Structures are given as structure tokens and as C-alpha cells.
């Protein structure tokens, strides 16, 4: 079964928080509303979140970038965006789509799209923060021009794994090994018979902290393009990242609950059903990749992975525990 399909066997999917990008409707005396507003709201620089017909744009100019955040938080979720990146000379510009909880010990799952000079490929950086600790960067180039059309970028988080996807192709999987069972899916096949797994100190996995969905665009020319050697050319501003659709399907955290509410943790963690309907993202078949998806992952990483912290011995003379056997 495909990892990102909503359930199986005719069961109804969870009542998704679904945003069909900006379907403007004229109300009364010419006042426009937008269905993006049902799910997201500006998080900073409100005037740099711009509606353009059926589309939503986050804008960067010499004065400011901009961003949005989901109106709800979620514990276990699939979040996706149909996104067209900044075209032309986008050196120094970073667009992000990510999930994050709050506080110093927060969890965070990042897509960061690193702009480049005209004609050079975008790089897509993924990262995970667990209990406030990141430094788990991987980078890929893409097998298409992400500025020419919309493509879907998604993160799935459930109790078994975090999966990053591009157009339904998994590009990265971070598995939960807290139960000290042998690694699942593709990791089990890497490294051959002599591969070892650290069972005495299992790798960390994101705990049950409610997360919001964010996107932002900003100037990062101190590091984003060729290590900061290429700066943003403001003569090309404004830079627009364009959204056609944003979808969030998960266990919505009660609006009046604190982030540590034990009742909400139980509701979202201990059952496959809740007030949202069936929690398809937690079903057994969601706990690892299918054979087809494993093949897709191997292909993507073999042909498009350009950086992996797991093999960066300069930064990590001692291999991080989640990298063991790779």
C-alpha cells in the first residue's frame, strides 16, 4: 500500500484539515476570502503573505521576508504543500516548509529549499531536531526544475517513522528504534551481513510534542548559496514562493490544551480512531515503506543525494547512533 494514501479497505479517511489553495470567493461588497485562511495564518510580516487569485505567495524583498503557520497543532500528522519555487536568480534565498513544536527541547522536521544563480539547480536540505538538537542535515538535488511548475513536498510523522517525500517519492526516512528491534525497511538492507546496530543506546526519536506546520521565505546569503560566496541580487526582488495547495491531515491538538496535556497525548497516541475519524497514518502498513517505496528511496538517494551528515567524519568523528550500519 502506498504510504501516503488515506487508509485501505474502503475505510473512511480522517477528517483532514484540507486547504485547496486560495479559492477566492467574492462576498457582499467585494470582500475576498480565501480557503487558505481556514488552515494557515501569517506568522510574521503579514503584508508579505500575498493572495494572487487561486494562489498564495510568500514574498521576500529588501525589507523583509514572510511566513505562515497552521491555525492548529497536531500530534502525528502528514503535512504537504504544492509549491513552485522562486524562479530565475534566487541566490541567497531560502524557502522553508516544516513542522515544529515549541520550547528549547522542541522537535522539528525541515524542508529548506536553497536558491541558486540562474541555471544552477536548487538544493533541497532536510533536517530533524529532536529534543532541541539538530545537525542532521541531508541535501539532494532534484530530478526536475522546481521553478517551472508545482510539485508536492510532504512530511509524514507517526509513532514509527518520519518520512520526507517529493511527489510521493520518499527521499529520507528516520525510523523509531526505541524498542531495540532490528531496523525496518531500507536500513535493514544497507551495510550487508556485517552491519551493526547500536542496541545499547538506541537513537532518539521525536516524542509526543504537538507540532504546528510552518512555511517561510528569508534572506540567507551568509550561507545558503555556495557557502555564502554568492549574495542575493536585490535587483531581482521581489522573490515569490508560490503555493497552490496546502494539506494537513493528523490528530489535531485541542485548542484549549497545554502542550504537555496527558489526555491529548493518550487520545492521539493510544488509538487508531479519534474525533477526526480514522488515524490512517498510524495503521500498521504505515510503519515502514512498501517494497516499491523502498526502491524509490534507494533510487533517489543513489542518484540525487549530495550530502549526508552520517558520512561527514569531519563534523562527526563518532558516527551518530541513528547512522549505525549505513
List keywords for this structure.
326 residues, mainly beta, Jelly Rolls, eight-stranded antiparallel β-sheet, 2 helices, ConA-like_dom_sf, Beta-glucanase-like
Structural commentary:
There is one protein chain. This protein has 326 residues and is mainly β. It has one domain (40-177, 204-318): Jelly Rolls (Sandwich), CATH 2.60.120.200. The chain is built from two helices and 20 strands. It has helices at 262-269, 291-304, and strands at 17-20, 25-27, 31-33, 40-44, 49-52, 55-60, 66-70, 74-84, 93-100, 108-114, 123-129, 138-141, 151-157, 161-166, 169-175, 212-219, 239-252, 273-274, 277-278, 305-308. The strands form four sheets. Strands 1, 5, 6, 8, 13, 14, 15 and 17 form an eight-stranded antiparallel β-sheet that branches. Strands 4-7-16-9-10-11-12-20 form an eight-stranded antiparallel β-sheet. Strands 2-3 form a two-stranded antiparallel sheet. The longest helix has 14 residues, at 291-304. The protein is globular and about 55 Å long. The two termini are 26 Å apart. 39% of the residues are buried. Its EC number is 2.4.1.207. GO terms for molecular function: hydrolase activity, hydrolyzing O-glycosyl compounds; xyloglucan:xyloglucosyl transferase activity. It is an enzyme of class 2 (transferase). The active site is at 108 (nucleophile), 112 (proton donor). Residues 177-205 are annotated as: Disordered.
Amino acid at each position: 500500500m502506498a504510504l501516503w494514501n488515506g487508509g485501505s479497505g474502503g475505510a473512511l479517511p480522517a477528517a483532514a484539515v484540507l486547504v485547496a489553495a486560495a479559492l477566492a470567493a467574492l462576498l457582499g461588497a467585494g470582500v475576498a476570502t480565501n480557503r487558505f485562511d481556514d488552515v494557515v495564518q501569517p506568522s510574521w510580516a503579514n503584508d508579505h503573505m500575498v493572495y494572487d487569485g487561486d494562489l498564495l505567495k510568500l514574498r521576500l524583498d529588501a525589507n523583509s521576508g514572510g511566513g505562515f503557520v497552521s491555525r492548529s497543532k497536531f500530534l502525528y500528522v502528514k503535512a504537504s504543500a504544492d509549491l513552485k519555487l522562486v524562479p530565475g536568480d534566487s541566490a541567497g534565498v531560502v524557502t522553508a516548509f516544516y513542522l515544529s513544536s515549541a520550547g528549547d527541547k522542541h522537535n522539528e522536521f525541515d524542508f529548506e529549499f536553497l536558491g541558486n544563480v540562474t541555471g544552477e539547480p536548487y538544493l533541497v536540505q532536510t533536517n530533524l531536531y529532536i529534543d532541541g538538537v539538530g545537525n542532521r542535515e541531508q541535501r539532494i538535488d532534484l530530478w526536475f526544475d522546481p521553478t517551472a511548475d508545482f510539485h508536492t513536498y510532504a512530511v509524514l510523522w507517526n509513532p514509527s517513522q518520519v518520512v520526507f517525500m517529493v511527489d510521493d517519492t520518499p527521499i529520507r526516512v528516520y525510523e523509531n528504534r526505541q524498542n531495540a528491534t532490528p531496523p525496518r525497511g531500507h536500513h535493514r538492507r544497507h551495510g550487508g551481513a556485517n552491519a551493526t546496530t547500536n542496541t545499547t543506546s538506541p537513537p532518539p526519536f521525536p516524542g509526543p510534542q504537538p507540532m504546528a506546520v510552518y512555511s517561510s521565505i528569508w534572506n540567507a546569503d551568509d550561507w545558503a548559496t555556495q557557502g555564502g560566496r554568492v549574495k542575493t541580487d536585490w535587483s531581482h526582488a521581489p522573490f515569490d514562493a508560490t503555493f497552490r495547495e496546502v494539506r494537513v491531515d493528523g490528530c489535531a491538538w485541542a485548542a484549549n490544551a497545554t502542550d504537555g496535556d496527558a489526555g491529548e497525548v493518550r487520545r492521539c497516541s493510544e488509538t487508531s480512531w479519534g474525533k477526526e475519524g480514522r488515524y490512517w497514518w498510524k495503521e500498521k502498513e504505515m510503519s515502514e515503506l512498501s517494497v516499491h517505496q523502498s526502491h524509490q528511496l534507494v533510487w533517489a538517494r543513489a542518484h540525487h543525494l549530495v550530502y549526508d551528515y552520517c558520512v561527514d567524519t569531519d563534523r562527526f568523528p563518532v558516527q551518530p547512533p541513528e547512522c549505525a550500519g549505513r
